[in-house]
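Dear support,

I submitted the protein below through the web form. The confirmation email said the job was done, but the results page showed an empty box. After a refresh the structure appeared. I'm attaching both so you can tell me whether what I see now is the final result or a partial one.
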Amino acid sequence: MSRRALLLVNRHSRQGQKRLSEAIDFLEKLGFSLLQESTEHPHHLPEVIHRYKYEVDLVIIGGGDGTLNAALDALVETQLPLGILPLGTANDLARTLNIPTSLPEACKVIASGTIRKIDVGKVNDKYFFNVASLGLSVKITQKLTKEVKRKWGIFAYAYTALQAVWNSRPFSAEIHINGQKIVTKTVQIAVGNGRYYGGGMAVVHDAAIDDQRLDLYSLEIQHWWQILLLIPAMRQGRHIHLPGVRGLQGQEITVYTRKPRPINTDGEITTYTPAHFLVLPQALAVIVP
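What the results page shows now:
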């Protein structure tokens, strides 16, 4: 593999600013010729990737799941392989792909050049790696500020989830999947492409990022405290077998709501219902252990 790489680091990610020079040092010692662009605004990443697409052989991104999601559209369009430096708070995509959180070890993984083709999810016009969801998770995202993440780290997810759960209220939704129409009242609908989201919770116990399917679960509970009973099972993805949880699988899903509801893709609010979900099999090459 050629060693020309575009290195993109989100300075606002949990470790981005302080680990940037360290990452550059490790990668150069491993033989990479780096074009460096650091950004304080991840929404600029697609423009940068397109600008350098003919000058590099891969893109290395340092940041969390939100930073990776911001670059995803351009990665799919250019078909440049992706190397990941997990410098965010949750690092759920890195967890799904077994990429180590140690910076030296993550750099060694990129240098090894083992390519794995993974699926990509799409909701409306927005691609996603891990999960796209509406309801409770959106409230958590709105409360999960950069300040809270810096202060609490991975525990920020539990802290903000408890706040959001207290105020959660069911909403009406219509789910179309595999020729079925399901009308329900729910506090959350999540559609997963990968395995992990929300700081290490599993979408479904057997979910994989290359299984060419989407996994949907809907939390159809009446009282906020019922969510607390589900949390231990959600760490393993076993919640879909419990009362009050609906689990479905398919390659194409549409969700309608009475009024437009925001949708969270990999930790960022990017689109609204009505939502049309698709899985794009083997849409992206990622460098993995």
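Response: this is the final, complete result; the empty box was a page-load delay. The longest helix spans residues 16-29.
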